[in-house]
Amino acid sequence: MDIKTVGVVGAGQMGSGIAHVFALAGYDVLLNDISEDALRKAVDLIDRNIGRQVSRGKVSAEDKDAAMARIRTTTKLPDLGPSDLIIEAATERETVKQAIFEDLLPHIQPHTILTSNTSSISITRLASRTDRPERFMGFHFMNPVPVMQLVELIRGIATDEATYKTLHAVVEKLGKTSASAEDFPAFIVNRILMPMINEAVYTLYEGVGSVKSIDESLKLGANHPMGPLELADFIGLDTCLAIMNVLHDGLADTKYRPCPLLTKYVEAGWLGRKTERGFYDYRGDEPVPTR
Ligand code: CAA
């Protein structure tokens, strides 16, 4: 199936990154959010980030203008109805995602493919509550979307081959690489990455290392581009905790229990970069460790 128009639900850090890469690849994008302000901020961010690619000679100024002209915004979910492909990138809460799909169903075309950018929630379960589990898939982008090469493709139990092939071809058109994952809690990337981050928080909690020594150890000792605590702040501590809970509940294994210190940071509202405080405090010129 030929995809031309793409609806993106949620204009947060993932939704705006997804709109950015689809518009640059030539798709018409309609970005939706309940907040006008979030939509304005997302368009500004996309403009700045593509501008960064122009200044580094990776994108031409004409391609930037053409991409920005392909992005439209709306606060009304039904406006996404005519889209060939819809990518839900809202908050990582199953009730929120389920409500979005329910609200979309009466408005979409028979051929529309529905996808979720969920990082951990069961695709089979989300799909089963729609009228088209065969045309429903997990479509998981990594943060920052314009930079990260991988997209995880997750088939639910009922997803058909045509849908998988269509999304596989879309990922190629974006210039990215797909990895196919089975639909089990947190798929591949987060099944491996989140227990590592959670273990870094345990290492801090037990006093084995400080924020600085833990991050430096992994950066300099394992060549990771960011330390695990810096990365947790970048992803969002609420998202990290939500994924650990999905692993813990879904696999019923105590090795996935979230570290109490991670829970405490989330309870404090210290969610990382987005709230300007997490394992680091970002309110000054330089990030300062909070422990
Ligand atoms: N848009 C466009 N370009 C961007 C960008 C953005 N949002 N952010 C960074 N860039 C570009 C920069 O312009 C720069 O381009 P050049 O190579 O042409 O110079 C390049 O990316 C590197 O950026 P910086 O020089 O600013 O910074 P850096 O070298 O420190 O790299 C980073 C930043 C790419 C984020 C790097 O630190 C990194 O790879 N970190 C790890 C990220 C990671 O692990 N992401 C996965 C998170 S897990 C996930 O997403 C799954 C989930 O479900 C939770």
Automatic annotation (TrEMBL):
Residues of the site described as Important for catalytic activity: H140
Biological process per Gene Ontology, one example term: fatty acid metabolic process
The protein's enzyme class: oxidoreductase
Residues binding NAD(+): G10, A11, G12, Q13, M14, G15, D33, E92, K97, S119, N143, K274
GO MF annotation terms: 3-hydroxybutyryl-CoA dehydrogenase activity; NAD+ binding
SUPFAM superfamilies: 6-phosphogluconate dehydrogenase C-terminal domain-like, NAD(P)-binding Rossmann-fold domains
Residue ranges of every copy of the 3-hydroxyacyl-CoA dehydrogenase NAD binding domain listed in the record: 5-182
Domain 3-hydroxyacyl-CoA dehydrogenase C-terminal: 187-282
InterPro entries, A to Z: 3-OHacyl-CoA_DH, 3-OHacyl-CoA_DH_CS, 3-OHacyl-CoA_DH_NAD-bd, 3HC_DH_C, 6-PGluconate_DH-like_C_sf, 6PGD_dom2, NAD(P)-bd_dom_sf
Pfam families recorded: 3HCDH, 3HCDH_N
Enzyme Commission designation: 1.1.1.157
Keywords from the UniProt entry: NAD, Oxidoreductase
Entry's family note: Belongs to the 3-hydroxyacyl-CoA dehydrogenase family.
NCBIfam families noted in UniProt: PRK05808.1 (NF004474), PRK07530.1 (NF005715)
Protein name per its UniProtKB record: 3-hydroxybutyryl-CoA dehydrogenase
